[in-house]
Amino acid sequence: MWGVARAFGGRVLLRVEDHDRMRGRPEFETAILEDLEWLGLNPDEPFVRQSDRESAYEKALRRLDLAGLVYACSCSRRSIEAEVGPVDGGEPRYPGTCRPREVDGTVEKARRVLLARVPQVFPDLRLGSVEQVPSDQAGDILIRDRHGQWTYQFAVTVDDLDQGVDLVIRGEDLLESTGRQIQLSQLLGRDAPPSFLHHPLIRHPDGRKLSKSNQETGIRELRASGWSVERMLGHAGFALGLTEERPCSLADLLARIQASAG
Question: How many CA atoms lie within 13 A of 139 on its CB side?
C-alpha cells in the first residue's frame, strides 16, 4: 500500500485499529511503529488510534439513530448460532431477533443498524466487478458490541469517511466486508465509496492462512534472526512479482511499483 500511494502521489495514513480493548496491547502498537520505522515506511501524518476516536463514533451513531436505523440488541454470538444453526466455513447471519423486540437500551450496550436489502456492486481493482447483498450475508450490522466496544465494520467505515480515504488495499479475506462497509458509509452520508483492491494472501502449501496466533514468523522475528531491510524488501517485491528473490532498496522497489502501475 505504501508503494502504491507513493506511485500515485497519495497520502500514506497509519491507523492503529485498537477498537477491541480486550485484545489490544501497548506492546503490539510499539512493535508496529518500530517495524515500519525500521523498513522506512513512514506515514505522511501522525498516526491515529481508534481508541482515541470515541466522540467520532458516538457522533456517527447519533446520526444513524436520528434516522431511525439503530436498535438495541441483547443477542450473543452463541444465541445467534443456536437460532440459525451451524454455518459451514462462514459467519452466521443475524436473523433480526431484536428488531421487533423492546430491548432496554439503557441496560444493553449492543447496537445494530437496520440494513435494507440493497445489492452493492463495486469494482475491485484486482478482481473486477463484485456484487454483494450485505443484508443477506450478515443481516443487520452490529456496530457496538455488548461490552460497549465499537466493531471493526463500524469503526473503519467512520474512519475512512472522516480521513477522506479513497483507496483501500487489504487482503482478500476481508472482501466479504466491503459491501456492508459501502452500504454503511452511504447511510452516514458518503457520496462515493473508496476504491478497493483485495490482494491474495500468502499461505502455507496446504492453503492455510499465515497467522501470528499460530506462531508464524513475522517481521520482528526475521529481523532478530539477521534479515536486513534490503532482504526484507526484496522478499516482499518477490512475493508481489516485481523482483527476483534478492535484496532490494526501498527506492528500487518503489521504482518497480511505479513502473508496473504505469
Answer: 14
Residue count (the chain): 262
- The values of phi and psi at residue 88, to 5°, are -80, 100
Q: Which residues contact 62 (CB under 8 A, 6 or more apart)?
A: none
Residues 195-220 have pLDDT tens digits of 999 988 766 566 666 555 555 567 88
**How far from 171 is each of 28, 72, 130, 199, CA to CA, in Å?**
20, 31, 15, 5
Among the listed residues 113, 134, 135, 116, the one whose alpha carbon sits nearest the alpha carbon of residue 65? 113
Question: Cell triple for residue 73?
Answer: 440488541
Considering the entire predicted model, what is its pTM? Answer: 0.88
The answer to whether the beta carbons of residues 228 and 39 sit under 8 Å apart is no
Rg (CA), the chain: 20
The two beta strands, 141-144 and 111-113, are antiparallel
